[in-house]
Amino acid sequence: MFGWFRKKRKIEEVDTTKETKSETKKETSKSHTKTTLCPYCGNDFKRVVKAKSKCKACGKTVYKRTSISGESIVVTEEEKEKIDKEYEVRRVISCDIETLNSNYAAHRGYALAAIRKELKERFGKEPLASDIAWYILNQESVRTLSDTYNIGSYQNVRLDMARVSYERGNYATALRLLFEVIYLDHCNMYKVVMLMHDPTLASVMPYTKGSVPPALVEMAYVLIDLSGTDEGEAEALYVEANRSLYAAYSPEISPKESFGELKQILYKEKTK
Are residues 86 and 98 in the same domain? Predict the structure, then answer.
């Protein structure tokens, strides 16, 4: 049920020593490091572009934005939408992995130095912060799931795993984990567990389906878009992600039924 460590993909270094002057000039224009050049035609506005301007040379509208790295740049309409989307993504799903590791170390007693040493010995290289996080979160998944009454903590751990997967660029994995979190809410798994252990509670707290928090829906929008997952693929992923939970706890709503109810929300933007 639980994944293990995935090898970090190598990032190829680009040799820029053989660039010609024309290639360098072209690249500078494309990266828009100056806030006075038109990103479409390279025309110099002779002034710093404000929030929005129209180029007199090509007639196209350009926009000033601050990149994720903090650099002021002038961009095209398409680039503007991409940067705005990046900020939306970070607002909804990003996390500081170093802080996450520190929090688990403080509250759950994980020795980060010992984990770092173990992973280095196992894989022969210095582990990244995300590798340490993945180690901790796998341990926490097993611990919290083994405690039936701790289903809420298990859900929080899986949400943290989704965030870490996003930071690692593994969007499909992040979506799969998020689907698990969403299902736990939608089928009201906390109440399912309570009634499983004490059926007499049904008279005072009858089972009802839960609702999915808007923040989780926003995260799903982002990850569906980033992973390029269509509706059919999403349904298969949702059902597979929650197969074990459904078999273990038998909530009244199956993963397939749950997705059938949620797809109108998750894909509403694509079906308008």
Answer: no
Do the beta carbons of residue 187 and residue 252 sit within 8 Å? yes
Into how many domains does the chain fold?
2
**Is residue 1 within 8 Å of residue 171, measured between CB atoms?**
no
**What percent of the chain is predicted at pLDDT more than 90?**
55
Tokens representing residue 27 in the block: 């690249």
Read off the pLDDT of residues 72-120 as tens digits, 9 standing for 90 and up.
899 999 999 888 877 877 777 889 999 999 999 999 999 999 999 999 9
The residue segments making up the domain with residue 58 are 29-91
- Name the amino acid, one letter, at 30: K
49 and 173 both lie in a single domain: no
- Whether residues 80 and 155 share a domain: the answer is no
pTM of the model: 0.72
Domain final position from 91, 120, 141:
91
pLDDT computed for residue 89 by the predictor: 72
The two three-digit tokens of residue 166, written as one number:
């996003």
- Which residue, chain included where needed, has tokens 């079906």? 271
- Residue 101 neighbours by CB distance under 10 Å: 22
Residue with tokens 């040799």: 15
